[in-house]
Amino acid sequence: SRGLASVFNIDPYNMENLEVQTALLSRQPIPPAPFFILAGIGAALMVISLCLTLGQHFEQARWLKPLVYTGQLALTIYIGHIIVGMGLLLALGNLHNHSQGFTFAYTGLVFVVSVIFSSLWKQRYAQGPLEWAMRQVSQPASVTPQKKRLKAARQRKVTANRWSWIAGAILVMVLISALLMVILHNEPGESFPEEGNNHIAEPPRYIWNTRPATSGAHAPGLASWGESSSPISPWLYLHNMEDGGVVMHYNCPEACPEVVSELRSILQEVGRDKLILHPNPDMSARIAITAWARMITMETVNREQVIEFIDHYRGIDHHKS
Questions:
Q1: CA distances for 302 relative to 69, 263, 309, angstroms
Q2: Which residue has the higher pLDDT, 54 or 36?
Q3: pLDDT digits (tens, 9 = 90+) for 262-271
Q4: Exposed (0-12), middle (13-18) or buried (19+): which is 30, by Cβ within 10 Å?
Q5: What is the topology classification, in CATH, of domain 191-313?
Q6: What residue segments make up the domains of the chain, in order of their start?
Q7: Which residues on adjacent β-strands are paired with residue 191?
Q8: Quick one: pLDDT at residue 242?
């Protein structure tokens, strides 16, 4: 990355160049940078090779047919997972920052629903709904009117059932997804979009999107774990949070010894490892508990909620490379 930065004459510590750096050097899936494209091509070739091998060795195997049907409905499944699968998460405001358990469970759900839907669909119809639509659009002009009439007659017999199957499949997936969200996505705190995790040598000349900050550019070094009697800059404690730390903030323009005492007792109970307690006058809430891209706020200390938040997020590393 440093070599590419020098080639493109990019100052890695200049915040104005963050967007350029991300576009050129990022290895995250979005945006699709060179490393991601190369990795994606390699992964695609591996999957294609595996599918060809399975097809050659298990051509008549019954267990392979559902996967074959799913492949034959690839366009329908692809569009469906975007509209229904991701659309549901977006509608519920939970598209980002999931735990690994939820991510694997939700991905598995989409896969299982896709295979079941494809198998049931192929038992009744030769083509998937979007595959059929594409065939209609790309149908050669040389098809005779008589053939068109015959095909239209056959198609009318299945049109009503086709759309009822589509609606039923979407409804089932929405219901199962909603149930899974309730069961698995009971993660404490509010989720916020990540603002990057660049390490910069000097405090930035901009304001993070949340107060207190929950992600973004930060110092190469760490703040000391444990209690601090003076405010700690987000530029420092964000690196602690990236390393899996949790920060307890309190803002008391007037003295609030009971709040400090309660938070201090929590610190002593759960241990100072990857935990910070400090005053933070740069926030509107009286009390805030933050982890990477997560935050809860409160006016009085809810001991059970604070400890649950710490136990859930402490120790989760958020480095991207």
A1: 52, 10, 11
A2: 54
A3: 999 999 999 9
A4: exposed
A5: Glutaredoxin (3.40.30)
A6: 2-189, 191-313
A7: 294
A8: 94
